[in-house]
Specification:
The chain has 395 residues and is α/β, with parallel strands linked by helices. The protein contains 15 helices and twelve strands. Bound molecules: pyridoxal-5'-phosphate (PLP).
Length: 395
């Protein structure tokens, strides 16, 4: 058989019989696994035999989930974590040591900013913030001690795009690794490892699980050596995902392709609608021809995703009023769920980003981030219509 397509891989990477003739992977809700004999236990600990020991080290439900995500990202293996930040932090801390240097994109998820700006330097790791849209900035700041270039693309919340192939080519010439946070695209629309990256991480809380009922993360590596370091790190820091969360994530993942298709179509329609509204200053959606990196986005991704930002002409007050007036959309943080979620990055998800970095990111106080769900598009637009109308009336 030829290689399966993405939607088939989602469903058929796991074996048909998931153990005990179960059609669906069971939830192995157990802390330990029983040894046949003392010799068997010793052989498992020595790595001479394959099998399960203890669920902090590995668990069959978690492994089923890791195997499917690794197949979708076209890497050698996956490691699931209790949150996206578990995967993000492992992608750096499993590899870096004091004295190393790390280049990080200027636009990152708020807690990722915290990690690289506050905690890596505390451990003696130098962090230099670069503009990932300018390869010259990477060349200028690269040092012999640079071990990792960490990128988030499209970046949260402005959708800034990094040219993964060009950056990876430069990094590999100089012996550094490229890590990409692929949360916004999901593997359905972008495969960073195929574009040259070494490691890909996700907050699988978002599109991969897609149902807002799990906080989780996953990391996919391109070599076995990298994965061995990540698994050792996960073992000693204890960040593995739980079996129930892996079960829910596997279940959510099964509909990723159809969710992403519907979400992307709807998101583009809503972005086009917002671009025409007189109250809106600009819309940052990579699928719009007005988006500064529209061409690069179209080159490296196969779709534009469903989360984007827009700014309000009326400043922070107008942004706040809009969030007060929406009725149907849910005002909460997170993204990539089946229902539409809307929030204010400067005071919520990115509130912890220092002011100078907010300015560098183009993250302004009149900005709103929206994650489009799978509702009828007309109802999302109708909610905006009524909210804009309500805003016109004095409060
Ligand atoms: C949400 C998010 C994270 C962090 O994930 P958690 O699951 O909340 O720990 C990391 N990167 C991006 C791009 C995110 O949107």
């Amino acid at each position: 058989m030829s290689e399966l397509g993405f939607a088939s891989k989602v469903l058929h990477t796991e074996p048909h019989d998931k153990g005990m003739h179960s059609h669906v992977t069971p939830i192995f809700q157990t802390a330990s696994f029983v040894f046949d004999s003392p010799d068997h236990g010793a052989a498992l600990f020595a790595g001479k035999e394959q099998g399960h020991i203890y669920s902090r080290l590995g668990n069959p439900t978690v492994e089923a989930y890791e195997t499917v995500v690794a197949a979708l990202e076209e890497g050698v293996a996956g490691a699931a974590f209790g949150s996206g930040m578990g995967a993000v932090s492992a992608s750096m801390l499993a590899f870096l040591k004091a004295g190393d240097s790390c280049l990080v994109g200027d636009t990152l998820y708020g807690c990722s900013v915290d990690l690289v700006q506050d905690h890596l330097p505390r451990l003696g790791i130098e962090v230099i913030t670069i503009d990932p849209a300018a390869i010259s900035d990477i060349e200028k700041n690269f040092k012999p001690t640079t071990k990792i270039i960490y990128l988030e693309t499209p970046a949260n919340p402005t959708n800034k795009i990094s040219d993964i192939p060009a950056i990876a080519e430069f990094a590999h010439k100089h012996g550094a690794m490229v890590v990409v946070d692929n949360t916004f695209s999901s593997p359905y629309f972008q495969k960073p490892l195929k574009l040259g990256a070494d490691i890909v991480v996700h907050s699988s809380t978002k599109y991969i699980n897609g149902h807002s009922d799990v906080v989780g993360g996953v990391l996919v590596a391109s070599t076995k050596d990298q994965m061995a370091k990540v698994l050792e790190w996960r073992k000693v820091t204890g960040g593995i995902m739980g079996p129930m969360d892996a079960f829910l994530s596997l279940r959510g993942l099964k509909t990723l392709p159809i969710r992403m298709e519907k979400i992307q179509k709807s998101a583009l329609e809503v972005a086009q609608y917002l671009e025409k509204r007189p109250e809106v200053e600009k819309v940052l959606h990579p699928g719009l021809p007005s988006f500064p990196q529209h061409e690069l986005a179209s080159k490296i991704m196969t779709g534009y995703g469903g989360t984007f930002s827009f700014t309000m002409k009326g400043g922070f007050e107008a942004a706040k009023r809009l969030l007060e007036e929406v009725k149907f959309m849910t005002v909460c943080v997170s993204l990539g769920a089946i229902d539409t979620m809307i929030q204010h990055p400067a005071s919520m998800t990115h509130a912890c980003v220092p002011e100078h970095l907010m300015i560098k990111q183009g993250l302004t106080r009149n900005m709103i981030r929206i994650s489009i769900g799978i509702e009828d598009t007309k109802d999302i637009i109708a909610d905006f219509d009524q909210a804009f109308e309500a805003m016109k009336k004095a409060k």
